[in-house]
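Weekly modeling sync, notes
Attendees: S.R. (lead), two postdocs, one rotation student

Agenda item 3: backlog of single-chain predictions. S.R. asked that every request posted to the team notebook include the full sequence so nobody has to chase files. The rotation student volunteered to paste the first one in as an example of the format we agreed on. Action items at the bottom.

Example entry:
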Amino acid sequence: MNLLETIAAAGGGSIVREIGGSVGVPQAQAQSAIEQLLPALARGIQRNATQPGGLESLLGALKGGQHEQYVEQPDRLSRPETIQDGNAILGHILGSKEVSRNVAGRAAAESGVAPDLLKKMLPMLAAAVMGSLGKQTSGGGGLASLAGGGNGAGGGADLTGMLSSFLDADRDGSALDDVLGMAKKFF
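Predicted structure, as returned to the notebook:
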């Protein structure tokens, strides 16, 4: 299951409803906006995971961040502390507020949702993405095995493979074409 499918399916669509409802956007528009925002977040996560120390940082965030709560209890997504956590996640994923504004601006053109509403959606979506990744990694044998903490086998490759599969929108076995194709829209 890719990132979009996971977010859309979580709790019977409750993440999409919660994010859309918190900014006053109908569910269909929220779904469209999320479809436009996710590629930039996915690309940022993938880029960060492949940087020196990035994989360890991602594993640490997934292990200690308690992000799964955002998927398990989507009503938490609009809370101020979640917005703060989401903004911190965005800082790591996208690097700057300028990039976040650029992502929102480009997604607005495609989704029809106003950029200021998309800027409000981004931190909630970032928190949900980390929650989805956290659930995916903990469901697949735990973080220790992904980090190589079990038998010492290439744990980094396991997480990279899991991330690639998670980000592979067209299920052709490669997330690279999906990320590159979608990135053209954002940068």
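Discussion: group reviewed the output briefly. The first helix runs from residue 3 to 9.
Action items: rotation student to repeat for the remaining queue; S.R. to check formatting next week.
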